[in-house]
Design goal:
57% of the residues lie in helices and 14% in strands. The chain has 352 residues and is an alpha+beta fold. The strands form 3 sheets. The chain has a 5-stranded mixed beta sheet with strand order 3-4-9-5-6. It has a two-stranded antiparallel ribbon with strand order 1-2. Strand 5 and strand 6 form a beta hairpin. The longest helix is centred in the first third of the chain and has 118 residues. The radius of gyration is 50 Å and the shape is elongated. The C terminus is likely disordered.
């Protein structure tokens, strides 16, 4: 009985010990894992310490560079202040010099005026000499004006007839006894009309009359440049053709800048300048130089299709500026393909 009881107790203790052994094994494994984690954390701490040391070194280096940069900036600021001070001093000196120069120039001008006044004082110059000088100046001015006015008047009559295909025009002095101070009346009667005043003419007729007067003066005293702003706007097709014909005849002695929207006027140009808007709200300047016609075997190539008078090239978008200038006889410009001639009929008749 006692042996059986001891064996039962032993068996009971053995059964109780099995969970405890399993628990001990689990605890041993847990302890090993914790030891490995502690070792990993120690290695990480060591690595972090090394990184922190490197970062501290970089921070120290950056601070040293920052201090150097602050010194450079301070030096540059001092240099800028010195340059600004020198510029201010120079500006003050230049202002003083300019003021001195202006004072000297004014003094010299007053001295010159004073000398002229002294030379022309009545008590130093006889009265009859002064009157003689004034009379001589007036006579010379009157003669020059009369000669120029007569030439302009004749040119205006011929140009008016040329543009209108007839009619009568004239320039009259309001007071012939005092030509230097009086006004000038413009008499213009297109063919088939008996107008008493230029104000009764239509817009196109006024423009053509102005063109005739402009080129009448231009024939007496031409200039290297002439700007025409929308002069052809009120003209119809027939008057546009006459206007362009006259314009082409003068490009041999002047360069014309014509601001226009008329396609026929644009087609006569050698160079085109226009404004277009490829993107909404963004204007763009476009320049086109029309190529000269090349001659091969004596026959020129029609670059603009001028053989067909109705096929006139399109113009650039928006306003276009058309400029024309003379070309050499060997390389005629585009304008020559539209009937450009050398001189006016009046000039041809007056030529020897």
């Amino acid at each position: 009985l006692s042996v059986a009881t001891a064996q039962g107790r032993h068996e009971s203790l053995r059964r109780q010990r099995q969970p405890m052994d399993a628990r001990r094994t689990e605890l041993a494994e847990l302890i090993d894992r914790r030891r490995h984690e502690l070792a990993e954390h120690a290695r990480r701490l060591e690595r972090y310490g090394t990184d922190a040391t490197a970062l501290d070194a970089e921070i120290d280096f950056a601070q040293a560079n920052l201090a150097t940069a602050d010194q450079v900036i301070a030096a540059r600021r001092d240099e800028h202040a010195e340059a600004a001070s020198a510029a201010e001093t120079l500006e003050t000196d230049l202002r003083a010099r300019r003021q001195s120069f202006n004072t000297w120039h004014d003094r010299r001008a007053r001295h010159a005026v004073r000398e002229a006044q002294l030379r022309l004082r009545p008590d130093t110059v006889p009265a009859h000499d002064l009157l003689s000088i004034i009379a001589r100046i007036n006579n010379t001015s009157r003669d020059l004006f009369a000669e120029t006015f007569e030439r302009v008047r004749l040119n205006f009559q011929e140009m008016f007839t040329e543009l209108f295909g007839g009619g009568k025009a004239n320039l009259l002095l309001v007071n012939e006894q005092d030509p230097l101070e009086c006004g000038i009346d413009i008499i213009a009667r297109p063919p088939g009309k008996q107008l008493q005043s230029v104000t009764l003419m239509s817009g196109g007729e006024k423009t053509m009359t102005a063109v005739a007067l402009l080129f009448a003066v231009y024939m007496v005293k031409p200039s290297p440049f002439c700007v025409l702003d929308e002069m052809d706007a009120p003209l119809d097709e027939s008057n546009i053709a006459r206007f362009l014909k006259i314009l082409d005849r003068f490009v041999s002695q002047s360069q014309f800048v014509v601001i226009t929207h008329n396609k026929r006027t644009i087609a006569r140009a050698d160079v085109l300048y226009g404004v277009t808007m490829e993107e909404a709200g963004v204007s763009k300047l476009v320049a086109v130089r029309m190529a000269k016609r090349e001659r091969e075997t004596g026959v020129g190539h029609d670059l603009m299709g001028t053989a067909n008078a109705s096929a006139v090239p399109g113009a650039i978008d928006e306003a276009a500026q058309a400029t024309g200038h003379a070309e050499s006889a060997d390389s005629p410009s585009i304008a020559e393909s539209f009937g450009k001639t050398e001189r006016l009929a009046s000039e041809t008749a007056a030529a020897p």
